[in-house]
Amino acid sequence: MQLVATEMRAGNIIVYNGQLHRVLQVIHVTPGNWRGMVQCKLRNLKTGNQLEHRFRSEDRVEKASLDTHEMQYLYSDPSGNHFMNTETFEQLSLTDEVLGDSKGFLLPDTVITVDFYDSQPVGLELPNTVVLQVVETDPPLKGATAAGGSKPAKLETGVTVAVPQFIDTGTKIVVDTRTGEYVSRA
User: Which residue spans of the chain are classified as CATH 2.40.50.140?
Assistant: First the structure.
């Protein structure tokens, strides 16, 4: 499917120089008496490298046609991270490179959306928030409130996030998967 450059939006996956790129940022620029252009920040899905490119407003780009499937996370072992398609029950193993930072928010039985291009997984989308348990943190301070600063806390998946002073070991918290930040107690 062809898009005019001005129709691109953040989150789109396009084919640029023969490789898949995720559009991270789009800025439409109209400098004075020049023609308009679209300044884009792109991330190569294969290498992870980011680049900036300026398209003319009338340029056409190819939007990748992706298949999306709901997948359930099963477990991880040295051979990879194993998922099951919730419709066909087929199992799939994804590498740590495909998962990226998302691995720190996955617990068994978590359902995610995986994007496929030519039957190859190219990206995934987590739920916006997940509930994880704090396994290691400093003891809470007496009389601490949410406005009293933060401290690091290690979660059950191994990821570390900043939490308010009143959070104790064993507390379940809600974490935003897009930013990796503490949201609230569960």
Answer: 67-125, 129-185
Average pLDDT over residues 63-67: 86
DSSP 169: T
The domain made up of 2-63 has a fold known as SH3 type barrels. (2.30.30)
Q: Is the per-residue pLDDT at 99 higher than 70?
A: yes
- The pTM of the full predicted model, rounded to 2 decimals, is 0.68
Bridge partners of 26, per DSSP, are 40
Cα dist from 12 to 68, 73, 101, 148, whole Å:
13, 24, 20, 40
CATH architecture of structural domain 129-185: Beta Barrel (2.40)
E strand spans, 30-159? 37-44, 50-56, 60-63, 67-77, 80-85, 91-94, 111-117, 120-125, 129-137, 150-155
Cβ pair 134, 153 in contact under 8 A: yes
Strand order in 150-155's β-sheet?
A: 160-164, 150-155, 129-137, 172-176, 181-185
The pLDDT, as a whole number, for residue 169 is 92
Fold of the domain built from segment(s) 67-125 = OB fold (Dihydrolipoamide Acetyltransferase, E2P) (2.40.50)
pLDDT of residue 143: 67
pLDDT at 147 over 70: no
